[in-house]
Write a structure and sequence with these properties.
The protein is mainly alpha-helical and 159 residues long. It has ten helices and no strands. Helix 7 runs antiparallel to helix 8. It is elongated, with a radius of gyration of 19 Å.
Length: 159
């Protein structure tokens, strides 16, 4: 290359940087309901897009709460998208965040009577995750109900 002009390698690096910037802007999109691209991928049952978002987004973005204070974890539990729940937990999202009713993802799993989601939220999936998995089983929603209360009200002895 001539003096003052970028080399092909420099042009490629600049192109990659522009692509990364566009990707970040796309991933940081918020709908009128406060949903991120990940919220929308879960709502519309598009796991491949959800997995791409989980892989690319920092944990802080994965924990964004929409206008109903639902995180992507809340939605994936509610919609019983087990692999998405697992991917979010492995990425290290905070499982104790509460929605507008004070429910954590575990409260929702109990309400749904989803044994698989309860297990994902309460049993360590990996060695690294053992410390993070401990759920506060005394945490109450805004009605004063713990997860055990919800299970008892549902009559579910398995959970």
């Amino acid at each position: 290359s001539t003096w003052g002009e970028p080399s092909p390698e420099e042009e490629e690096e600049e192109e990659e940087e522009r692509f990364r910037q566009q990707l970040l802007e796309t991933l940081a999109f918020l709908s009128e309901d406060g949903d991120t691209l990940l919220h929308l991928a879960i709502i519309h049952c598009m796991p491949s897009i959800a997995f791409c978002c989980i892989a690319q987004m920092p944990v802080e973005v994965l924990e964004f709460q929409n206008d109903l204070f639902q995180t992507p974890l809340h939605l994936s539990v509610y919609l019983e998208q087990f692999e998405v729940v697992k991917a979010l937990i492995l990425k290290g999202v905070n499982t104790a965040l509460q929605d507008r009713n004070g429910n954590t993802a575990l409260h929702l799993a109990c309400e749904q009577q989803s044994l698989e989601c309860v297990e994902l939220l309460t049993k360590p999936i990996s060695e690294m995750q053992i410390r993070k998995t401990l759920q506060d089983l005394q945490l109450q929603n805004w009605q004063g109900l713990t997860c055990l209360h919800i299970n008892t009200l549902k009559g579910n002895l398995q959970l």
